[in-house]
Amino acid sequence: MDAPGPPAGALDVLGLRDRPIGTALWSPHSQISLRMLTTEPRWIDVAFWAERVDRAVAYRDALAPDATAYRLVHAEADGLPSLIVDRYGDYLVVQLLSAGLEAFRGEIIDALKARLEPRGILARNDVSVRRRERLDQEVELLYGDVPETVEVREGDVRWLAAPYTGQKTGAFLDQRENRMRAGALARGNALDCFSYHGSFALHLARNGAHVTAVDSSAEALERARENAAMNGLEDRIDRVEANAFDLLRELESRGERFDVIVLDPPAFAKHRQNVDAAFRGYKEINLRAMRILAPGGHLLTFSCSYHVGPKAFRTMLEDAAADAGRPMRWVEWRGPAPDHPEIVQIPESAYLKGAILQAV
User: Which domain holds residue 213?
Assistant: First the structure.
């Protein structure tokens, strides 16, 4: 049954006694039918999108990230709900995640072209949320040309992003500053679990550690090998194709010790009903990592599961440390890089959480 009302786009929202509340994106078939754009009625035209894009880009310019790949637009956190724009050098990768936003595709792309003058714009609209909006899931070149891989720089490290096939829009840009922080702690032997394309491993190896990079995907590890070769670090990174849960247990049974361990798993709880199982999974890998951490060694551990909140994440670490029988010093709390801003009134924008712990 079709939802009532006009087709997807923008409309004014009225409250009690027809008091104007603002203008919103309207998605007639979505669980989130309204996404507020303004707090007063406004005509949503090219000038509106240009203004919001300018504001988002100016914020990133002020951050002056030490990288050529970073997020330019972070959806609701930039006043542009359901829009993601990531920069990879001279190229942009976008995601339009609601039917209301899709209605303004042309205006949005024009605003991005005018402000940023990219060589190409790619739409990574192959995400499941679009199905719930009754939109096609597709990867589509929208402007210019975008290559299969793009070499980017992150601090002193270079790596290849994969705009057409990589995770998210081609890479995990939200972990950029956490990877650099890992490099600052690098020493001795390091273990990088759920390594994917080896971005954490590169920073660890670049700063003197010998790294064991673990991932269950042979394809991901091959890209990690290419990235290591690009940086002249092949002899400092050993790639291991394995299930991280199994390997951590095996390393513990062998009495192995590591000076730095990174745990950056995929989301274990993509839905609220998966939280209990996710908690057990996070606890298991952290407990095992704590047991094989050398005295004075650092554990950098993360969760990108929104449904496992900061309080639950810390509780999990407390339980893991207790069961591991290792006194662990809390060094610092970590979150996403600041180009992925969190808005206080929008808890959904605070999805990535992490901690650095040290074995006492």
Answer: 172-359
Percentages helix, strand, coil for the chain, rounded to the nearest 5?
A: 35, 30, 35
Phi and psi of 160, rounded to 5°? -100, 120
Structure tokens belonging to residue 234: 């092949």
| Residue 304 annotated as catalytic | yes
Q: Are strands 120-125 and 91-96 parallel, antiparallel or unpaired?
A: parallel
Q: Which of 102, 122, 106 is nearest to 114 (CA)?
A: 106
* Choice among 304, 316, 321, 355 that is catalytic: 304
Neighbours of 241 (CB within 10 A): 15
Which regions in the chain score pLDDT beneath 50? 1
Give 209's strand partners.
none
Q: What are phi and psi of 224, to 5 degrees?
A: -60, -35
Q: Distance (Å, rounded) from C-alpha 343 to C-alpha 256?
A: 42
| Last residue in a domain, options 132, 148, 164 | 148
The one-letter amino acid code at 196 reads Y
Please state whether beta strands 20-26 and 34-36 pair in parallel, antiparallel, or not at all (unpaired): antiparallel
| 157-161/150-154 β-pairing | antiparallel
Does residue 290 lie in a domain region? yes
- The total of structural domains in the chain comes to 2
Q: What is the pLDDT of residue 1?
A: 36
Contacts of residue 39, Cβ cutoff 8 Å, sequence gap at least 6: 21, 22
Q: Which residue type is seen at 248?
A: L
CB atoms near residue 215 (< 10 Å):
24
What's residue 271's pLDDT? Answer: 67
Instruction: Point out the domain boundary residue: 148, 163, 186.
Output: 148
Whether residue 139 is found in the same domain as residue 275:
no
Backbone φ and ψ for 244, nearest 5 degrees, come out as -60, -35
